[in-house]
UniProtKB/TrEMBL annotation:
It is found in: Nucleus. Its cofactor is Mn(2+); Mg(2+). GO terms for biological process: DNA repair; error-prone translesion synthesis; response to UV. This is DNA polymerase eta. Transmembrane segments: none annotated. It comes from Daucus carota subsp. sativus. Residues 596-610 have a biased composition (Polar residues).
Amino acid sequence: MPVARPESSDSRVIAHVDMDCFYVQVEQRKQPELRGHPTAVVQYNAWKGGGLIAVSYEARSFGVKRSMRGDEAKSVCPEIQLVRVPVARGKADLSIYRNAGSEVVAILSRKGRCERASIDEVYLDLTDAAEKMLSETPPESLEVIDDEVIKSHVLGISAEPSDVRQAVREWICRSNADRRDKLLACGAFIVAELRMQVLKETQFSCSAGIAHNKMLAKLASGMNKPAQQTVVPFVSIKSLLEPLPIRKMKQLGGKLGCSLQDDLGVNTVGDLLQFSEGRLQERYGINTGTWLWNIARGINGDEVESRVLPKSHGTGKTFPGLNCLKTIAAIERWLSKFSEELAERLEVDLEQNKRIAQTLTLHASAHKATESQSQKKFPSKSCPLRYGTTKILEDALNLFQAGLREYLSSSSKAYGNGCSGWGITNLSLSASKIVDIPSGTCSIMKYFHTQDQSCSSTKEFNDKEIFEAATLSTSGSESYLMKHLQEPQTECHEDGTKMNTLMQTHLEDESRMFEDKACAQTNFSREISSLSTPVKKNEPQLDSVGEDAVIKDAAGGNRSRDQKGKALKEKQGTSSILQFFQTKNCFQEPKEESVNDMQETTESSCSVPSESGGIRSLHRGADQSRVDCIYKIDEIDPNVVDELPREIQEEVRAWLRPQKRANNTMRRGSSITHYFSPNKNL
DNA sequence: ACGGCTACTACA
DNA sequence: TTGTAGTAG
């Protein structure tokens, strides 16, 4: 449900930029011979020529519509060129469009706050830029005005068609105009400029709306397409909205809009004006009621959020009708592909944007197989996200099992895994709760994060530990590196349960110690501690440097590191120390024990049944960390450090150096050891 | 149950 | 916090 937000100002300059049939343009750039021809992008081709997801304007003029099948489009427009969406791992892969969208965002974000609203839509807050222009080079002072500005559509301008251009020119340059209009005029200049830049640098055309808020800008961007822009002056708002069918408004295209029509007889936005705020609140709740009252008047306080990156990554597929998945084996096959794609995208996000995702969620829809399940929805399930394809797969499978168990629980009969009882028609996996890695971690992060895929031993709970690719906590009180790049350890505790109880007391000690001895830290650990989110009182800031850490190659260390290093170097072009860390390649298929091992726990905030029928605790705060990959620190040839970029050489040397720890008895067996000890609860 | 895939927000 | 529902392109 939409919610009302106070309006910070009624003279902001907000733009909504909408790419024209974006997927088509992306394909036309790739294949220029398609330009000018009726073209559509279609995904999958098996059934009736696949479904259209983007249609060029040439094709639209033939009556081709989105959501037609490919065959249908061909019959309406025989010369249409159908371009298939790329397929990877047996499913549609939209990454080329996502990446193209990023190109556009990079340009549009130059002039003000930029919010990526979808793969092909962006909101801009150009208030500051417009005010600057108005004070420095107001439109009335300009001698030449770009044609792209003159071609703007300005709502409410009355002129004969032959005079429109002149009327727009005058509106833009009026020296006695309302300040709000002048700001919008400046916005029109800025947006025209941006759109030209986008065209020049990406070859993509776009349309835009320029108004005083997001809602109006969005409305306007769709009014004149393709490759045009539309301005909504303040005085035109009323006449724009009054006759507008209610369902044209964003957020009112679905059930809410339907309810307004059916229950209140509201067919246009103007019709809404007759209802008091109280009445609307009565019917739709405080928030939505106020929101409705506001939008009827063109009031919308939504801020343009500064966000150019997505808040989540997802991948999934539908399996309609007889294609539904009926066995765990089939589920696993697909989850495996999804895990791969997700891990890949997360990896790119980490590398490019220094962000990590914290939550893995599995969504599914199920076929109704029995009456008892017919109404029941397959529940979605989440758990902490661990990086690496195999870990994601392992967790996803557990989430699925948990969901399935719940889904089937109501049915009178107990269904086995066979081909009985259920069929999955939609399955997807997503990664969310993405947070930035604090700056300063990046230098070293780059060199270690890539170990994820290769680092997937499931004997992890019994191993000594040093690195963890990425794991997470729900507490948010520890640093990223603490969770991911663990210090060498001095001890290995096998009993996670005991450790947990010990931890509580040790944490406080550790916290005090940290404050006292912060300067004794190595560079490496200093970086670690600098990463920490601001320390709250009583929240431990952990720090520990293992003196005699044993770092071993979890793969067994049979090959010399030089061999392994060379092999990887050629393949990946990375420095050898990194390869050393990467080459443990302790790639193992998940073993059942890894799940069956799980002990029952009573304190978990979220428990899912494990395959063995035990309970697997998912959110355990600080105890999330596991470590899989182990190295012998003295196996690292100090010379390879020279191959690292200078900015991290010191960090690594300090870390490799035997620690001088005069007064460090507390460190041995200190809380970090417990903190990162094997945790059988997870 | 053939409009597939993705992603966001609000809410309980 | 996790999970659901609604919305949109």
